[in-house]
Amino acid sequence: MIGLSATVIIWLIYNAAVTWLIVLLWRSLDDFFTPLLRNLLTVTLLIWLLIPSQVPAQESFAPSWLIVIFESALGNGTVAWQVAEPLLYFWLLSCLATFLHYYFRRHLPDH
Q1: Alpha-carbon gap, residue 52 to 83, rounded angstroms
Q2: HSE of 6, CA atoms in CB hemisphere, 13 A
Q3: Could you give the CA distance from residue 29 to residue 98 in angstroms, rounded to a whole number?
Q4: Which of 18, 35, 42, 82 has its Cα between 20 and 30 A from that of 65?
Q5: Residue 21 neighbours by CB under 8 Å, 6+ apart
Q6: What is the pTM assigned to this prediction?
Q7: Is the distance from CB of 54 to CB of 79 less than 8 angstroms?
């Protein structure tokens, strides 16, 4: 069983803060964007901010966006791409699911 180590507590705080930020943005962007664009932005933030990746040459995890930025800044483009590639695939699949949801929801008969 996993205890509440410092790493787990930090991840819980990070995930709570990001989730709070996303909910706050989602609710405040209702006036500025259509529901489709608002949901696409929310999906993008969820994917890019909440998915962790293993830190290269370490046994710990960090947010993927942070690893991509650091590895790119250090000149390790291949490592940065290896971290970013699954994020891109998840993001594309979630955007496709969002588009399909709106497509089929629009074509449902009204009750």
Answers
A1: 9
A2: 1
A3: 17
A4: 35
A5: 45, 49
A6: 0.72
A7: no
Residue found by looking up tokens 């209702």 in the block: 30
Neighbours of 80 (CB within 10 A): 20
Sign for the CA dihedral angle at 75, 17, 87, 26 comes to negative
Q: From its phi and psi, is residue 97 left (phi > 0), alpha (psi between -120 and 50) or beta?
A: alpha
Residue 103 one-letter amino acid: Y
The tens-digit pLDDT sequence of the chain (111 residues) is 556 788 788 888 998 999 999 888 888 888 888 888 888 888 888 888 888 888 888 888 888 898 899 889 988 888 889 989 999 999 999 999 988 988 888 766 665
Do residues 44 and 32 touch, judged by C-beta distance below 8 A? no
